[in-house]
Amino acid sequence: MVLAGEDRNDRLCLRVLLEDLCPEMRGRLVEIGDSVRLHQATDANLQARAETLARKVRARAARESADVACVFVHEDLDRIDGEDVPAVRERVQKALGSALGNAHYALAVSEVEAWLLLFPEALTALVSAWSLPSRYRGRDTGRIPDPKRILTEEVSGTGRRYRESDAPGVLEHAARLDLLPRPVGRNRSFDRLRADVAECCAHHL
Ligand SMILES: [Zn+2]
Fold first, then answer.
1. How far is ligand 1, taken at its centre, from the CA of residue 41, in Å?
2. Which of 25, 76, 136, 178 lies in the 20 to 30 Å Cα band around 17?
3. Would you state the pLDDT for residue 83?
4. From the CA of 165, how far away is ligand 1's center (Å)?
């Protein structure tokens, strides 16, 4: 199993989610740090970028004398959810499928921090002074602009500030508290990831 993405913290977040939602992946995930830049690629560039990633995946598998069962590729959309987002995701998913075979495009909308807003209890479990204001609870967090700002300015307030390296810890608490199946609110990209992990766990491992 390969986990590819640009940002180390985001890869760690994906790892926590994958290992909790599919325990069979524990001990089998290998990470590749790569600036994938897929959803903004032109049609001409997209397939080439997917093929480049596929070459890196195969080289890594050869070095470790391992077979690749499946690849998760993470990227942030960096804008809020909208009508066109399923098509944006599907276009990249197709390119990855044709380059890699079994592959899942984990497109976080708008970014991984939007997923953290689904787990107010986990935010407080990580730092007891942190609290998600009620106006952000039960919402579609894919449509809330700038979730990172909400975490740094409104959740952590005047005390210990949220940093990007806190994101995996928040999700670890969400996993430990068995909150991942029960998000407060919704986010299409998070639901999609859960469906992809379930499919992968059942058919690709
Ligand atoms: Zn899979």
1. 23
2. 136
3. 98
4. 26
